[in-house]
Write a structure and sequence with these properties.
The chain contains 13 helices and 6 strands. It is mainly alpha-helical. It has a two-stranded antiparallel ribbon with strand order 1-2. A hairpin with a 5-residue loop joins β1 and β2. The chain starts with a helix and ends with a helix.
Length: about 375
């Protein structure tokens, strides 16, 4: 396979891995964050709830970290730092959810939602451009401050990420939990869906009217059709709209993001949990596709030195490395996908131990009520 084509294939595969991680993150949020929070608010903890798929999001995060470091070595320790921070927050959420008491549900909520907000903020900073520079062999230098990463737009994209993750997680609790979980989870999914629609539309308008985008211009075409031979990065793409204008079909990605949430809200209002899960999952995938299509072929734009921006063509490793990794990924990636689907599609499991929360008679009564009220 041609080297330029390998770069595009790996760009697509990394996108698939990021979407898979976000879906796994949403399932974990649904079971480990929303369930304890809903139980704490109700005052009468329900005995049956969907258990979080074991270590799915950590597996995807680990795979994503190794892939970024090997496929795009120009990112260096930056990719490991970002994925490592996300992994640490995921582990903190797991320990907080296991150690927290019913009345400490708000602490679980605060700690558990941080990874989703952080990932959304990272994507927002990428769209704005990071203050990075490069001088010869000195490597990448960061010229900003940590506080500068929490700009209003980055916080807004954090809200977008948080809303879509909570919407999908709540829809999963609706689908996999007992009947007693349906109504509270449906309310959370509805609120998260409305919050997503509002924040996503505001973020799109903000980008289109008040953001400096970047583009790659070919100075000399290569012998292949997959990429330019000699190119330069220019700050001449207002609102990151060039790709959507060049490829009209790309507009379907943000439209699917909005449509998925509308479908989920409709399903929540009409008691159709499977459709709500499908619609919210479509939203997660479409949002990340929208960001990827807007950035392509940029990976990490620089706001202080445009020539230091990392692109798909400059950041990728050599042809032999990419080819070998593709062979390995063709074996391991389907196995990881199959494991994810197998664990996620299992029946409900006990996450909250009934004997520790309710009496024996009350437990039997609640279980019988759930059996009668379960909504498909």
């Amino acid at each position: 396979m041609d080297h330029e084509l390998l770069k595009i294939v790996w760009w697509l595969l990394i996108g698939v891995m990021l979407i898979s991680f976000m879906l796994g993150e949403s399932l974990d949020v649904g079971a480990r964050v929303l369930v304890p929070w809903l139980s704490g608010r109700s005052g009468d903890p329900l005995p049956q709830a969907p258990a979080a798929p074991a270590h799915i999001n950590l597996l995807w995060l680990l795979a994503l970290s190794f892939t970024l470091a090997l496929v795009w070595p120009s990112l260096g320790g930056l990719a490991c730092l970002m994925t490592g921070l996300l992994g640490l927050l995921v582990l903190l959420r797991r320990s907080a959810s296991q150690a927290a008491r019913p009345r400490q549900a708000w602490r679980v909520l605060a700690v558990g939602l941080l990874p989703a907000v952080l990932l959304g903020g990272m994507l927002g900073n990428v769209l704005l451009g990071l203050p990075l520079s490069r001088c010869g062999q000195a490597g990448i230098q960061f010229h900003g401050s940590v506080g500068g990463l929490f700009s209003p737009f980055a916080l807004l994209t954090g809200v977008v990420s948080l809303a879509m993750v909570c919407q999908f997680g709540a829809a999963w609790v609706m689908q996999r939990g007992g009947g007693g979980w349906y109504q509270p989870a449906s309310r959370v999914a509805g609120v998260a869906g409305v919050m997503f629609l509002a924040s996503f539309i505001v973020a799109a308008i903000w980008l289109a009217t008040n953001a400096r985008g970047y583009s790659v211009w070919a100075v000399e075409r290569s012998a292949t059709l997959c990429g330019p031979g000699t190119w330069v990065v220019l700050a001449n793409n207002p609102g990151w709209l060039d790709n959507f204008q060049a490829w009209p079909a790309a507009v379907l990605a943000p439209l699917f993001a909005l449509s998925g949430t509308v479908i989920s809200l409709f399903a929540c209002a009409n008691g159709r949990s499977s459709l709500a899960l499908l619609g919210s999952g479509l939203t997660v995938g479409a949002v990340l596709c929208s960001v990827g299509l807007a950035l392509f072929p940029l990976i990490l734009p620089s706001s202080v030195q445009v020539s230091a921006s990392m692109t798909l063509w400059s950041a990728a490793g050599d042809e032999r490395t990419l080819g070998t990794l593709l062979i390995v990924a063709s074996v391991l990636l389907p196995m990881l996908l199959a494991y994810t689907l197998g664990v996620s599609l299992k029946g409900s499991h006990l996450l909250i131990e009934p004997s520790k929360r309710v009496g024996k008679r009350q437990r039997h009564a609640l279980c019988s009520i759930q059996g009668d009220e379960r909504i498909a």
